[in-house]
Specification:
The complex is a heterodimer. By secondary structure, chain A is mostly beta strands. Chain A has strands at 4-7, 10-14, 19-25, 32-38, 45-51, 56-59, 62-67, 72-77, 86-95, 101-105, 109-114. The N and C termini of chain A lie far apart (41 Å). In chain B, 0% of the residues lie in helices and 56% in strands. In chain B, strands 2, 4, 5, 6, 9, 10 and 11 form a 7-stranded mixed sheet that branches. In chain B, strands 1-3-8-7 form a 4-stranded antiparallel sheet, with no helix packed on it. The chains are: A mainly beta, B mainly beta. The A-B interface holds A 32, 34, 36, 42-46, 49, 89, 93, 96, 98-103, 105-108 and B 32, 34, 42-44, 46, 49-51, 55, 57, 90, 94, 96-97, 100-107.
Amino acid sequence: GENVEQHPSTLSVQEGDSAVIKCTYSDSASNYFPWYKQELGKRPQLIIDIRSNVGEKKDQRIAVTLNKTAKHFSLHITETQPEDSAVYFCAASSHSGAGSYQLTFGKGTKLSVIP
Amino acid sequence: SQTIHQWPATLVQPVGSPLSLECTVEGTSNPNLYWYRQAAGRGLQLLFYSVGIGQISSEVPQNLSASRPQDRQFILSSKKLLLSDSGFYLCAWNSGFPKETQYFGPGTRLLVL
């Protein structure tokens, strides 16, 4: 099955600096890669996603890059703000035999933005 | 638009007691439904998923079971809770191929004492 590794597990940055979180996956058949943000005590919320036919996608201060050959993808947050502090999860989608797509999640990165 | 509900929001149960958590989705039909557990400070562990009424797939052997009695209802159950069942239980849905994005419910926080 799919295996997703996520690094680092914790990340502290000064407000205004950039943050980068990296993930690798094992299944070359995976073709959809979402990123979720989870604030303390809340549900994970989708913040950005990318498909394997695209190398990069941006949404304001957030961008995701994908290197399908190397099987890794990264989340980039620029001009970080205190409200960016949260746990971020990457995931890779694989097709199950039961006709459903499953997401395999990384273990998460706790991002702290220091004012 | 689609909405996903979970209840109860929080639950404190003694060891050995039964459990029933409910998840319902509005605004869509024939969704794929998922149950995840998240231990404190940890990642998301997929427990069960369902592609239709009465169809349940289990990801890990455990003390829990799931059922899907209606198209938009997904229930997580246990006959006897263990201390290790404590955690944050999240239900999620997607609309299936070609859309793989999963959307999470608000979650149920379970504490087993």
